[in-house]
Amino acid sequence: HAAETNRTDLMTITRFVLNEQSKHSESRGDFTILLSNIVLGCKFVCSAVNKAGLAKLIGLAGETNVQGEEQKKLDVLSNEVFVKALVSSGRTCLLVSEEVEEAIFVPPSQHGKYIVVFDPLDGSSNIDCGVSIGTIFGIYMAKDKDNATLDDVLQPGNKMLAAGYCMYGSSCTFVISTGNGVNGFTLDPSLGEFILTHPNIKVPRKGKIYSVNEGNAKNWDEPTTKYVENCKFPEDGSTPKSLRYIGSMVADIHRTLLYGGMFMYPADLKSPNGKLRVLYEVFPMSYLMEQAGGQAFTGKERALDLVPNRIHDRSPVFLGSYDEVEHIKELYAACK
Ligand code: AHM
Ligand code: MG
């Protein structure tokens, strides 16, 4: 593998996206600048996550450190970094963050045409114990950058220009689609650059893994219950599926993209809309799953066709291998 270790032609994420965008050269520079600010945010979070225990970045917000200074929690800090990087890029007019109740309207002097929806640090229950967490983002275009309104962001996911995530796991992995397939990059810490390592990701058509919080089974609807039952006791006599559930959407989706299978956060009696947020969790992941050849379904419709009413709306979601999602669609159709 000498050739690998001495690789001299490095496909960085910037170079890759510039190549991809060359046809619409008009917005090429703007999109590249926007993306490099998202990547900067991810590198910051990656470095903060890696030293979280040392720097006392974990624990409750408002906790004070030994010097009596107030410590910012990792998710609060991550949010600030993304907001500042995106505003100062001069390429955005509106931002929606899972950490901020209201949409953020960028000051006119820094206006650009893009709208970014994001969850700066997802997987809150896994932060303090060192399990993989991630950042999720989606990008829309404003109709008029100087008069952006909430309507510009309350758009179905099929209107997204790009979507992606960064996973802070055993390595730092950035996965993105600009509507032309899905590509994965791994951070080379010695270079500080994301290098193409997973070109053209395709989710296997069938899967051997299902991923769900089974602790909620008592409150599931009939199609979900039947689907999971069939994972364990397949009616056709095939081998039962394996259960994998990390509880960090980014990590569970990353595994699903690479190995295939089904990830779901269904509706239940207590949460009729499930848990996951439409704009910055369900849409970006559904976009990636479709771009990788899989499907995403809400229990009623194609996830990307959903029109959110409010920026923090939630929706049930089933996403993964094409055939797996086809199966759950059949179960819902049979239940109507
Ligand atoms: P968070 O935004 O509070 O981190 O919640 C989102 C996370 C997802 O990453 C994950 O898929 C889901 O919550 C897990 O929820 P649960 O613990 O109910 O299984
Ligand atoms: Mg979240």
Q: Can you describe what's shown?
A:
It is an enzyme of class 3 (hydrolase). Belongs to the FBPase class 1 family. 32% of the residues lie in helices and 21% in strands. It starts with a helix and ends with a helix. The model has no long low-confidence stretch (mean pLDDT 92). The protein is α+β, with helices and mostly antiparallel strands and 336 residues long. It has helices spanning 2-5, 13-21, 28-50, 52-55, 74-88, 124-127, 222-232, 249-259, 278-291, 322-335, and strands spanning 92-97, 104-105, 111-122, 133-141, 162-168, 172-177, 183-188, 193-198, 209-211, 242-243, 262-265, 295-297, 317-320. Bound molecules: 2,5-anhydro-1,6-di-O-phosphono-D-mannitol (AHM) and magnesium ion (MG). Magnesium ion binds next to strand 3.
Proportion of residues in β-strands: 15-25%
Question: How would the global form be characterised?
Answer: globular
Helix tally equals 10
* Ligand set: 2,5-anhydro-1,6-di-O-phosphono-D-mannitol, magnesium ion
Oligomer: single chain
User: What Rg is obtained from the alpha carbons, in whole angstroms?
Assistant: 20 Å
Helix content: 25-40%
Low-pLDDT residue intervals, each spanning 5 or more residues: none
How many distinct beta strands? 13
Indicate the structural class: alpha+beta
Query: Helix and strand succession?
Result: HHHHHEEEHEEEEEEHEHEHEEH
Average pLDDT, all residues: 92
**Terminal Cα separation, in Å?**
56 Å
> Largest beta sheet: what is the strand line-up?
2-1-3-4-5-6-7-8
Pfam family, one: FBPase
Catalytic activity: beta-D-fructose 1,6-bisphosphate + H2O = beta-D-fructose 6-phosphate + phosphate
Protein name: Fructose-1,6-bisphosphatase, cytosolic
Family: Belongs to the FBPase class 1 family.
